[in-house]
Design goal:
α7 crosses α8 and α7 runs antiparallel to α11. The protein has 267 residues and is of the alpha/beta class. It has an 8-stranded mixed β-sheet with strand order 3-2-1-4-5-6-7-8. It is built from 11 helices and 8 strands. It folds into 2 domains: 159 residues, Rossmann fold (3-Layer(aba) Sandwich), CATH 3.40.50; 97 residues, ProC C-terminal domain-like (ProC C-terminal domain-like fold, Orthogonal Bundle), CATH 1.10.3730.
Length: 267
């Protein structure tokens, strides 16, 4: 068993993003990453990364310390049935990024005695800027730290209880799209007031990045930062109030809560 090898079972968007993050961060060498795809799927993007592309899940996990499950929930049962007799509970760590597939559902198929971590990253993991939430079926096990250390090198990691995984899916994973939509809207506004599209996008994206950095580094409430740039009768407060009159905060909250409510319909 090679502690420096990982098998990613499922080479879709999130599996590929995680592989890119592994390579970018230097956690794993590209040749120590095996990714499986269906034979009907293209592989040129993965091969350009230098990873091993395989079509047999059991072959992929044979010499890997970490087994990362990155398929859709409807594919999980078949995948786990296929590898359950080839996993070593003592030497291998199972990491699942499968949405809404619980520890008990995994254990019902492969049996108990395995250390399993469920993670919910987002696609920014490919550039080592993910917010990854992590839960473990054995919270006191030292391997929790081993897994957390990996994902801390690709952004930030928060240990949570399993019953918060659905909420983390919405706020962390879906959250990337929500923020992107704001940046897109700000870009469109920037174009309307005179910037070229590439200039407006650069400004909007960097402003979003800077605003997030202020909160992460200073640890202050967003309103404290807002107060620093809203002067009496100023342009900022006029723009903010116009956005609020049109439902900005309400729309964001409703969108997050609505997505969370839809989680039960995934399976």
């Amino acid at each position: 068993m090679n502690k420096n090898k990982i098998a990613i079972l499922g080479g879709g968007n999130i599996g590929t993003a995680i592989a890119k993050g592994f390579i970018r961060s230097g956690i794993f060498r590209s040749e120590d990453i095996a990714i499986t795809r269906l034979s009907s799927q293209p592989t040129s993007d993965l091969r350009e990364m230098g990873v091993r592309v395989l079509y047999d899940n059991t072959e992929a996990i044979n010499d890997a310390r970490f087994i990362l499950l990155a398929v859709q929930p409807r594919q999980a049962g078949k995948l786990l049935q296929g590898i359950k007799n080839h996993i070593n509970s003592e030497s291998q760590i199972i990491i699942s990024v499968i949405t809404a597939f619980s520890f008990s559902e995994i254990e019902d198929i492969i049996g108990e005695g395995f250390f399993i971590a469920r993670i919910m990253p987002n696609t920014a993991i490919s550039v080592c800027e993910s917010m990854t939430c992590l839960a473990a079926n054995k919270p006191a096990d030292g391997r929790v730290t081993e897994v957390r250390d990996i994902f801390d090198r690709m952004g930030s990691t928060l240990i949570i209880e399993e019953d918060m995984m659905a909420a983390s899916t919405i706020l962390s994973s879906c959250g990337t799209a929500f923020i992107m939509r704001y940046i897109r809207a700000a870009t469109q506004g920037g174009i309307q007031i005179g910037f070229h599209a590439d200039e407006a996008q650069l400004i909007s994206a960097q402003v979003a990045k800077g605003a997030a950095a202020l909160l992460l580094q200073n640890g202050e409430h967003p309103e404290q930062e807002i107060d620093k740039v809203t002067t009496p009768m100023g342009l900022t407060i006029k723009g903010l109030n116009e956005m609020e009159h049109n439902g900005l905060s309400s729309a964001v909250i409703k969108g997050i809560v609505h997505s969370f409510g839809e989680m039960s319909g995934i399976k």
